[in-house]
Amino acid sequence: MATIENPKYLMVVQSDALRTFFRFHLPDNESQYLSRFDSFTMLTSQFEKLVPGFYSYSIYEFSHDVQITDDVDLGKSLESGKLLVKGEIEQVEIISPIRNDSYLIYH
Fold first, then answer.
1. What is the CA radius of gyration of the chain?
2. Helix (H, G, I), strand (E, B) or coil at 40
3. Partners of 84 in the beta sheet?
4. What is the pTM of this model?
5. Of 26, 79, 90, 100, which residue is least crowded by CB atoms under 10 Å?
């Protein structure tokens, strides 16, 4: 939900495992209810550099374009949460337990 007129959005994600950061400019807000929520559509190709795993993300808004390489104070985030990046469908391994009387076997 925008707090400034015609904002520009930046999403920063950090790998939980590797602690590496990635920054993405978000496209125009597509929400039909700007006072209630924001909605963005991103191409999955933008996430190609992210290895599969869990990430923390934060969304920031600015009154101007922010260069991804800028080492600027991002201020307080509008939203933060968790993001799960999965590999290609053929890389997914399904793990299911087999019950035994004394323990579970995963394969």
1. 18
2. coil
3. 54
4. 0.69
5. 90
Strands (E), the chain: 8-15, 21-25, 53-62, 79-85, 97-99, 104-106
User: Which pair of structure tokens corresponds to residue 89?
Assistant: 């469908």
**Which of 79, 27, 22 has the alpha carbon at shortest distance from 51?**
22
Q: Give CA separation, 41 vs 22, 28, 105, in Å.
A: 18, 9, 40
Per-residue model confidence as pLDDT tens digits over 47-90:
888 888 999 999 988 888 777 665 667 878 888 999 888 876 55
Q: How far apart are CA 65 and CA 83, in angstroms?
A: 24
Query: d(Cα 105, Cα 16) in Å, to the nearest integer?
Result: 27
DSSP per-residue string spanning 21-32? EEEEE------S
Strand partners, 83: 55
Query: What b/e readout covers 61-99, taking b as 16+ CB neighbours within 10 angstroms?
Result: beeeebeeeeeeeeeeeeeeeebeeeeeeeeeeeeeeee
CA atoms within 13 A on the CB side of 106: 3
SS3 75: coil
